[in-house]
Structure formats: structure tokens, C-alpha cells
Specification:
The chain is an alpha/beta fold. It contains twelve helices and 16 strands. Helix 1 links the parallel strand 2 and strand 3 (51-54). The structure holds (5S)-5-amino-3-OXO-hexanoic acid and zinc ion (ZN).
């Protein structure tokens, strides 16, 4: 999907719809129920997203969940309404075991899923410290991240490698720090991952790498050193303006883009986002400034070599 002559280079936009580490009290725009998640995903697709990255939440409380019934309801609901690539999380939320997080792979056999490439502290407790109108469980959830390690050991990663192969799922390799790229290299060297790989640089989580563009460039440079040109990439900048700063870097450097309420709640410095679609629209406008146009889901399927929507188990 590289530019030929005057052809515009396509950009694969991914919308991270709801997340598993944020809590609903942070923004009324975060979709909670299956219906809200489905509507938000379809709307994000209609304005330019080729991929929707999905978590699910308990409909009554908004608490992040690993319920396979909820996942099935959401992914089937989206598939009925549009052709977008549905990418469930295997990262889940705080307190979920690896088996709970990864159960979407054998259950849904999705075209794509996330694959987290290392362990690190995942700190969201400063959000609660800043104050706000939170339920008691939300404060506990956020405060509990003071003592939370997002666990992705080598044994865990080897297990996910087996599971994505069995499910015929393309992993999106989430790298939150430079060491995670070396973990990916190790898995490749053991023949556990298939090339070409797709890497997502996730910058801005407290406990891992921060999101200044120098750190993005450092990670991309390291990836080039380790993998040559044989990889695709996108970036998820956590928070505002990181989301759009990294989107701009990816647009300039031939990469792809992720935006969405999972990562960032603002569309401008002085304006909270009202929907995922609004965040995607801004990414599409930014792409246009760099002569990039949104890829359709089928163009993204071709770029990533996906098995196709007829081959999923939902
Ligand atoms: N929540 C993001 C920081 C996953 O779901 O597996 C990273 C993420 C990973 O989206
Ligand atoms: Zn996620």
C-alpha cells in the first residue's frame, strides 16, 4: 500500500472504542453497554476507521469485563452492521488472568487481536488523585493500579503466540517500551511469531515509556534496527495531545494511526471528545494534510494479510 507516482498513500485508522483500564467517570462519552459499543464502533467506521479495537464492560456498572458473552454480542453486532475489522483485546483490564484475557482467541477466532509484548507497572492512580465524580469501585480500581503489574511474561507471550496461530489471528504487537521490541525479536528468533509483523508503539502509560516524539523516534529506530523494513507500524499516544502528535509522526513516516476514547478523551486542548467518531474525524483531517487517505477495511485486510471476515467464529 505504498505510494505509486501521484497516488495517495493509504493510512489504516484504528479506533480504540472503550478500553479496559479507564473508568466511566472519566468521561460520559465512553461507551459502556454492548449497544453503545456497537453504535460507537459502527460510527467510527463510517467516518474512516478500518479497524475497531474492543474491550467490553459490565453493562450495569461500566466495569471492565472479560465476559465472552459480552464480547460475542458486541463483535456479532458490529459484523452484522458493517465490514470493519474487529480487533478484540487480549490485554483486558486490571485483575484479569491471562486465560481470561486470551479466551477471545479460541472463542471468536478474530482476524486480528492485540498481543502485549512485556510486563510493566500500569499506573492510573493519579487520575483518582486529581479528584472527580467517581463511584467507589472506580476509585478502588484506579487506586489499585498503584500495586498493579500488567503481566506479560515470556511464558505468557509464548502461550499467546500458540493461541494466535491456532486461531488464525494476526497479532498487533503492543510495545510500550523499547525492551518490548527485543522481546518481539526473541519470539521471532524462536519461530513463534510470523513475519511480517505489525507493531503498535503505545506511548504515554505511566510505568512505561512516555510519549514525546523523541521516544517514538527512538522506538521506531530500534524497530528498524531489529526488523529491517519488514514490519508495519502504528502508534497509540495515551492522552492529549500525545494521541495526535504520534498520529502526525506515523502519517509522516508511512505508518498507521490509532485514536479513540480508550487512549484519549480530548479532541482539542479545550474540548472533551463527545464520541469516537469525532476523534477519528480529526485523524482523517490530519491524514489529508499529509496526503494520506483512510484505507477501507478490505485494503487493510490486504496490507496485513488477514484471513477475512468469513473465517471468524462469530
Ligand atoms: N490500553 C492500551 C494502553 C490491549 O488492549 O491489549 C493498550 C491496549 C492493549 O489497548
Ligand atoms: Zn485495549
Amino acid at each position: 500500500m505504498r505510494r505509486k507516482g501521484r497516488e495517495v498513500e493509504k493510512v489504516i485508522i484504528s479506533a480504540a472504542i472503550t478500553g479496559g483500564m479507564t473508568v466511566p467517570g472519566q468521561s460520559p462519552a465512553i461507551p459502556i453497554t454492548p449497544e453503545e459499543i456497537i453504535d460507537s464502533a459502527v460510527d467510527a467506521h463510517e467516518v474512516g476507521a478500518a479497524i475497531v479495537h474492543l474491550h467490553v464492560r459490565e453493562p450495569e456498572t461500566g466495569k471492565p469485563s472479560s465476559s465472552l458473552e459480552l464480547f460475542r454480542e458486541v463483535v456479532s453486532g458490529i459484523k452484522e452492521r458493517c465490514e470493519v475489522i474487529v480487533q478484540p483485546t487480549t490485554g483486558g483490564g486490571k485483575g484479569m488472568t491471562l486465560e481470561e484475557r486470551a479466551a477471545v482467541l479460541p472463542e471468536l477466532e478474530p482476524e486480528m487481536a492485540t498481543f502485549n509484548t512485556g510486563s510493566f507497572n500500569f499506573g492510573l492512580f493519579p487520575i483518582a488523585e486529581r479528584g472527580g465524580d467517581y463511584e467507589e469501585w472506580e476509585i478502588e480500581y484506579l487506586e489499585g493500579t498503584r500495586d498493579y503489574v500488567f503481566r506479560n511474561t515470556f511464558a505468557d507471550m509464548e502461550r499467546i503466540c500458540e493461541m494466535v496461530r491456532e486461531a488464525g489471528t494476526k497479532p498487533e504487537l503492543e510495545a510500550y517500551d523499547v525492551g518490548h521490541l527485543y522481546n518481539i525479536k526473541y519470539l521471532l528468533s524462536k519461530g513463534l511469531l510470523d513475519a511480517p509483523i505489525h507493531i503498535q508503539f503505545v506511548l504515554g502509560v505511566m510505568g512505561a515509556n512516555a510519549a514525546p516524539i523523541e521516544q517514538f523516534m527512538h522506538m521506531r529506530r530500534t524497530a528498524l534496527d531489529l526488523f529491517g523494513e519488514d514490519f508495519t507500524f502504528s502508534a497509540a499516544g495515551v492522552g492529549y495531545p500525545a494521541e495526535y502528535h504520534l498520529a502526525a509522526m506515523c502519517l509522516m513516516l508511512g505508518g498507521h494511526v490509532r485514536v479513540g476514547l480508550e487512549d484519549n478523551l480530548r479532541v482539542r486542548r479545550d474540548k472533551r471528545a463527545e464520541s469516537n467518531a469525532e476523534l477519528v474525524e480529526k485523524a482523517v483531517s490530519l491524514a489529508d494534510l499529509f496526503d494520506r487517505e483512510p484505507a477501507t477495511p478490505d485494503e487493510a485486510r490486504e496490507t496485513f494479510g488477514l484471513k477475512g471476515r468469513a473465517a471468524v467464529a462469530f
